[in-house]
Amino acid sequence: MAEAATGDFRELFHRGQLTIGISELSKMTGVSPRQLRYWQKKGYIIPKNQDEPGRARIYTLKMVIKAAAMSNLLQTGYTLKAAAAQVDERMRPAQTMYHVLFDRYQGFQVNDDGEIIVDLGTFDPDPTQDLFAKLVDERPVFILKPKA
């Protein structure tokens, strides 16, 4: 199998590498920077660099989605507190999927037939095997292989 570059893809999406500043967040959500700072003060949104006082605020993709969703709910009549709670609840399944996919993702390979095989790392119930996935007729199929 041909080994493909894995680090670039994983690092791009893992641990909040995609970030924007407060001005861009304001433009994307239609929420003023002043209002975004208030949301931050209340703990509803958290800049990635919150532990670096005096530096310009930067926000992860997760916070962009949260702020946009909160803005939409506010426009439909939710209070700020209720909008934040509703968004947190709606984001829980997405956060679970993110962790399942990106915490397990080890990379991918392209086999001799051109199939993409995704490496999901050690199979937890049996650490002597690795778990892989591929698509067959656009459906995931899982494969266990003994560790190399």
From TrEMBL:
Annotated keywords: DNA-binding, Repressor, Transcription, Transcription regulation
Gene3D superfamilies documented for this protein: 1.10.1660.10
Classification via CDD domains: HTH_GlnR-like (cd01105)
Keyword Cell cycle in annotation: no
InterPro entries, per database record: DNA-bd_dom_put_sf, MerR-type_HTH_dom, MerR_fam
Residues of the HTH merR-type domain: 19-89
PROSITE patterns hit by this protein: HTH_MERR_2
Protein name: MerR family transcriptional regulator
Biological source species: Lactiplantibacillus dongliensis
